[in-house]
Amino acid sequence: MELVIVNTGCANISSVRFAIERLGYQVAVSDNAAQIQAADKVFLPGVGSANAAMSQIKQKGLVEVVAKLTQPTLGICLGMQLMTKFSDEGNTDCLGVIPTKVNKMLADGLRLPHMGWNQITPVNNNSLFEGIAAGSYFYFVHGFAAPVSEVTLASCEYGQPFSASIGQGNYYGVQFHPERSSEAGARLLANFIQNT
Amino acid sequence: MLARRIIPCLDVKDGKVVKGVKFRNHEIIGDIVPLAAQYAKAGADELVFYDITASSDARVVDKSWVSRIAEVIDIPFCVAGGIKSVEDAGRILEMGADKISVNSPALTNPELITQLHDQYGQQCVVVGIDSYFNEQTGQYQVNQFTGDESRTVVTKWQTLDWVKEVQQRGAGEIVLNCMNQDGVRQGYDIEQLAKVRAACNVPLIASGGAGKMADFSEVFQQADVDGALAASVFHKGIIDMQELKAYLRSEGVAIRA
């Protein structure tokens, strides 16, 4: 199986690669359009700000490539946010492959960024969350989030409910960092590779 | 619910994990990578690696251990020590660290915090603060270059002012190391941490003084910190991670299972 991480120039690429390798898979890191399109599964990681990351993807000429993939593709953290139509962070037009948008978290007076381990609740029995019970902890670090909507695959709560995971067609996204979420995170990555 | 974090801190000197008392007399605890893996497996929520020699002796420090840690552990980790520039930080983040923590260099050049925030985002910028309570003056003072006793200086900053300053500059988390308590295992400095908590709108991590399980319960419940950092109680096997987490859950503290 060909696994490719899109080289967005963001900082958590090595962590994602190591997590996939710990599961026993080989994975390539690439910004080559042909190699990304030929992959069986694609990962879109990201940390930092939405506009900086979109600029990177534009600079590399990968906007169309990533937006028109047909194989299962997993956006991680900022990578998930880039899959939506629009992010309030820097008023950024995103890839628009999952019909939702990203807002600044209000968190009802709680401290931001939302940083640490929080519990998620999978909805709709998506195979991405097979074997992951409601109440499982995942590691989050973010200040912006997608609301709960019909594209939500798992929800979380921090002052307000938000999407811990979203999906549409072949595109999946997780707001948390599966590569840093211990056994639950490893299970989610394995589910993505094996089930989707 | 967002869980409170238990964070073992591994002080690193010349590539080995060490621990001193009140920042002195460092003894070697063990090799970094196996210790990191062991803590991740035992249920630590996060790890901090503090390269305590780096800032004070102005040399280029070998950080290749960062990527070796990133390969084996599946929980977040932060690297502190010797990060003087955006480029230094970038190299460590590329090697797989989730956060970088700046302390002495941020005091020399506060603009560094702003630059790190702008380049890598607030979420990965941690500011470490070494705070000393001066009994004579009754003031909390920020110290610099604490990795080397002979070079440690008291800065012009009072702790609460520096806490506010670093937040304005874009810090995403603050680790407050209460120097009077460090390594002596008499409990966290609840009074100081509660004062800093009131001035701190980003996650706050308590450091210095953990000696028994009740100390953790106290610091979460009375100082409302987001995480508690400790070293010797874990390294010396005084507190077992799983027992601690079970105890805290029984005390009503939100803790990851």
Structure characterization notes:
The complex is a heterodimer of chains A (196) and B (257). Chain A is of the alpha/beta class. Chain A has one domain (3-195): Rossmann fold, CATH 3.40.50.880. Chain A is 26% helix and 31% strand. Chain A contains 6 helices and 13 strands. In chain A, the strands form 2 sheets. Chain A has a 9-stranded mixed sheet. In chain A, strands 6-5-7-10 form a 4-stranded mixed sheet, with helices on one face. In chain A, a hairpin with a 2-residue loop joins β12 and β13 (171-174). Chain B is an alpha/beta fold and 257 residues long. Chain B has one domain (5-250): Aldolase class I (TIM Barrel), CATH 3.20.20.70. In chain B, strands 1-4-5-6-7-10-11-12 form an 8-stranded parallel beta barrel, surrounded by 6 helices. The longest helix of chain B is centred in the N-terminal third of the chain and has 11 residues, at 32-42. The N and C termini of chain B lie close together (12 Å). The A-B interface holds A 11-15, 18-19, 21-22, 47-49, 110-119, 137, 139, 141-143, 157-158, 177, 179-183, 185-186 and B 1-5, 40, 45, 67, 70-71, 74-76, 90, 93-96, 98, 120-124, 172-173, 201-203, 226-227, 256-257.
Features:
heterodimer, A: 196 residues, alpha/beta, 4-stranded mixed sheet, globular, B: 257 residues, TIM Barrel, 8-stranded parallel barrel, 11 helices
Which structural class do you get from the secondary structure elements of chain A? alpha/beta
Q: Roughly how much helix do the residues of chain A carry, as a percent range?
A: 25-40%
* Helical proportion of chain B, percent range: 25-40%
The third-level CATH topology of chain A is Rossmann fold
Quick structural overview:
Chain A is of the alpha/beta class and 196 residues long. Helices cover 26% and strands 31% of the residues of chain A. Chain A has one domain (3-195): Class I glutamine amidotransferase (GATase) domain (Rossmann fold), CATH 3.40.50.880.
